[in-house]
Amino acid sequence: MLATGSSAPDFTIPLLTGGQFTLSDLRGSKVVLFFFPGALTPG
Fold first, then answer.
1. Which residue in 37, 9, 2, 34 sits closest to 24, CA to CA?
2. CA distance 12 to 22
3. What is the rounded CA–CA span in Å between residue 42 and residue 37?
4. HSE-up of 43 (CA within 13 Å, CB side)?
């Protein structure tokens, strides 16, 4: 678990529109990560 304000580990995810998103591409910028734990999953 990460503490509030700590650096997130780098990751790459597929985009719904094709291609990929890599967090490190935004290095040097302020970023807010918001996760939807169940988004696009059955149930």
1. 9
2. 4
3. 12
4. 4
Length of the chain, in residues: 43
Q: Report how far apart, in Å, the C-alpha atoms of 1 and of each of 8, 18, 29 are.
A: 10, 29, 22
- pLDDT at residue 6, as a whole number: 84
pLDDT digits (tens, 9 = 90+) for 1-43: 788 888 889 999 999 999 999 999 999 998 888 777 776 677 6
**Contacting residues for 22 by C-beta, under 8 A, at least 6 apart:** 10, 11, 12
pTM for this entry: 0.62
